[in-house]
Amino acid sequence: MASKAASTVSKYGKLWGRGYESFPPKLRRILSVSGKGDHATTYLQGLVTSDLFSEPKAPREEDSESLRALEGLVSSSSSSLNVDGGSGGLEEPMEQEVPVQFTSKMRSTCFLDHRGRILTDALLWKRSLDGEPVNTANNDNAATTTEYLIDVPGDAADALLAHLKQHKLRRSKVTLKDRSDEFSIHAVYGTLNAEGAPPGYLAAMDPRHPSLGMRVLSVGPQAVSKDEGATKEETGRGDFAEDEAGNDRQSSSPSQPQTRPERELRQKTFETLMNNHFPPAPGTYRVLRTLSGIAEGSELATRTALECNLEFLNAISFSKGCYLGQELTARSQFTGVVRKRIVPVMVVGTEMEVLRPWVMASVIQEMGLEGGLDKILGDFGAGEDGEKGKTKLELGGYVPPPLPKISSAGAGGIVAIMMGSVPTTASSTTAESETSNPQGGENVEEDEEQDLEAKQRQEELQKMRLAGERLQKEIAELAEPGASIVDKHDGKTIGKIVAPPAPGTTVLLAQMRLDRLGLLGDKDKWSRTNRILIGDSTKEYRYLPYLPLWWPEIDPETGKEKVVEEEEDGEEELDDL
What we know:
Helices cover 27% and strands 19% of the residues. It has 577 residues and is α+β, with helices and mostly antiparallel strands. The strands form 6 sheets. It has a 6-stranded antiparallel beta sheet with strand order 19-16-17-18-14-20. Strands 3-4-5-2-6 form a 5-stranded antiparallel beta sheet, with helices on one face. Strands 1-7-9-8 form a 4-stranded antiparallel beta sheet, with helices on one face. A hairpin with a 7-residue loop joins strand 17 (493-499) and strand 18. It is globular.
């Protein structure tokens, strides 16, 4: 994983630490759809949920006051555990905002089957093979060859390619190809600047949410180092090469030289380029997308688009024409109620202290917004002088949602705190005392007390680390995809595991009933004292669900994005007067 989170620099929350990683074909693959003029666009328009004839929307932003309050509530959670949770408290000012540029050449999308069930999600790049400017609208030059590069999870690539071939008519003037061995796929974290990519590269901020990083494709001849050589050969019995799926296989002919895939050459060239600016961070994307609450590929298979939050990730257009699987998606949006959605869930032991964001959410759900805020400000907001107004002022009008709303970087910080992976606030006590009293003598007893306190905190932290490691191992063994989450209180299944925990965490993705999260209806509430069973286990755990930053406000009557009616500007009332 990458290093600690950076400071808030935009209206999309804190960024993950700086780093980069390259994706092998078993994780991400590239499929190509190309054709003259608008043939490729027209072909894909009938198969994807996004509208290829209109500009993609930018991800939703958070207002500055909400971000300040959200980050402050997360950071303040560290105080109760006597650990250093980093900066970002309510009292700290926001840094200067950096604008984020998105491109129409890349968008998020989804492929459905004929029933309207998800086949896979994908990132869709559009480029011209003739060097002409790319047009988003339906005005592609008839003489220009347009190519769509489909960046798809590796576990769904074969099914998607078969799906594309199945719906390609004999007279269709498009070419389908798997280019996974030709191009390389990368992600860069800790930056919001995707402008000025070197020749041979395509770069853009992730269209789902910029906290997921910058996506990079190496596609041009300029992105292959001449020093590597495009025909590097490996000979001899027992040599290994990679097959199309990215798996190691032994050479079928021991005496036949093996040609190194172009993808490997591109990957090494990219790594050489990035090592001067960003450290390698393999495995970061898996952790980052799990903490961000985003499921991909086979994790989404057979589910509906709205249950997987794809409309929140700008992967669905509800205004485009017909496409495969549209009926179920449109009916769910305009007439139905969404009763379950995929959310990130942090699983902890029942003996572990529940942190402040979840305590606040539970109190608000139990007592209502007004009563909950009064209770919260009474318990948490009073300072040494007993005044509560200070916290209300610092919230700046921010209204806490029914569940904590946390950025991926914030969730990572909380995991580090709860698993004992951060230094104690007293870890530097001895050094500070030696600096303040270099001669010694006068404050010897005070220094000894500080040393003893620091030692005790270190022992507590070590216990937290060991307990965290045991918990991670337990949850990793239990939380297999498809395993049930059962509420111990009434024995009812309240969710299903979609994706196992991210490495080094107990955060998993689960399709949860919205009513049991307090997001749908008013009968059931989420409680911070909950107890659950996972799969066939008889051991009880506690689940702490949270909402990613990219989630909008949820309508408690429909389970969908709440539509805010625009206020009238009052001109009609003035005319009546």
